[in-house]
Amino acid sequence: MAGPLTGIGGIKPAEIIRPAAAESSSGEFRSLLAGAIQRVEKFQTDASQSVDRYLSGDGEELHTAALATQRAELALDLFLQTRNKVVSAYQEIMRMQM
Description:
Blueprint: H1 13-17, H2 28-56, H3 62-95
Helix pairs in contact: 2-3
């Protein structure tokens, strides 16, 4: 029987969505959203720098650049799906009648 599946590292959903810093509860959602955006931007920047290093011949390997690009793409997809779910939940709440 096969053993349990293990991840290869990289993106963990909690890593992208976790709050940037502990703030008051009134700004908690804002800090959560800002932290998620910053992490997605960091993945994008890291991927861009990795591709630039590969293209300039600074010792970056092709698979490292490809993995960084895929990591950035997955982070963006996860962020967009999370955003879509939040917007959908908000719209559902606004349709409720009191």
